[in-house]
């Protein structure tokens, strides 16, 4: 039934390669099917003005899509002089999702910026960015701990994200682009490894959905996050 031939509850193939950039404190290339995102984490011994003096750390994120990450060339946002609304919304989502899994007291008064650059897009780029972003963040924190700059791990719980939707009347896990573009309902589910919800984004695209369908999608999301967290732990040795 699915264009890819996958079962309703089957994820696309997932791989996470770490240490892909020389200079970043943490980096990985996450591939979820044909969606590929380069994620890096940068540590800075400073925080934004609204955090300064609080003793708390800060985690923020930036997101972008390369011009040929899609079927036709996208114009670089820098040439337009500003970021698009979608970009701003996604990078805010990534930042607050990652912060939900961070003990900001243990992090100390420093900032970690997670950059997520989409190399190739085939649906679920924000979910891949959050999942890969946590890996880059974890690797950066491991460097802080090894250097003795933080005494206890400030990352409370792995954070991962997956998309689910109603496609051809059936709940399906991990939408690729052909499904996402035709889904009657689509949603993004961000949660911790212990199934604590951080954010759920669900919308009907021409067809309403029931509470039972929403629950079915949430159940699928939990299955997907379990698999993603296993990949995160494997990649980071955590």
Which features would summarize this protein structure in a list?
238 residues, alpha+beta, Ribosomal Protein S5, domain 2, five-stranded mixed β-sheet, four-stranded antiparallel β-sheet, 6 helices, globular
The share of residues in helices is 25-40%
The count of strands amounts to 9
CATH fold annotation = Ribosomal Protein S5, domain 2
* Count of helix runs: 6
The percentage of residues in β strands lies in: 25-35%
Provide a concise account of the structure shown.
The chain has 238 residues and is an alpha+beta fold. Strands 1-2-3-5-4 form a five-stranded mixed beta sheet. It has a four-stranded antiparallel beta sheet with strand order 7-6-8-9, sandwiched between helices.
Q: Topology, please?
A:
Layout: E1 14-18, E2 26-32, E3 35-44, E4 58-65, H1 77-80, H2 85-99, H3 104-107, E5 111-120, H4 125-146, E6 159-167, E7 170-173, H5 177-180, E8 185-192, E9 197-204, H6 211-236
Parallel strand pairs: 4-5
Antiparallel strand pairs: 1-2, 2-3, 3-5, 6-7, 6-8, 8-9
InterPro entries: ExoRNase_PH_dom1 (IPR001247), ExoRNase_PH_dom2 (IPR015847), ExoRNase_PH_dom2_sf (IPR036345), PNPase/RNase_PH_dom_sf (IPR027408), Ribosomal_Su5_D2-typ_SF (IPR020568), RNase_PH (IPR050080), RNase_PH_bac-type (IPR002381), RNase_PH_CS (IPR018336)
GO molecular function, one term: tRNA binding
Catalytic activity: tRNA(n+1) + phosphate = tRNA(n) + a ribonucleoside 5'-diphosphate
Descriptive report:
- It is a single chain.
- With 238 residues, the protein is an alpha+beta fold.
- It has one domain (14-236): GHMP Kinase, N-terminal domain (Ribosomal Protein S5, domain 2).
- It contains six helices and nine strands.
- The protein has helices at 77-80, 85-99, 104-107, 125-146, 177-180, 211-236; strands spanning 14-18, 26-32, 35-44, 58-65, 111-120, 159-167, 170-173, 185-192, 197-204.
- Helix 2 (85-99) packs across helix 4 (125-146) and helix 4 (125-146) packs parallel to helix 6 (211-236).
- The mean pLDDT is 96.
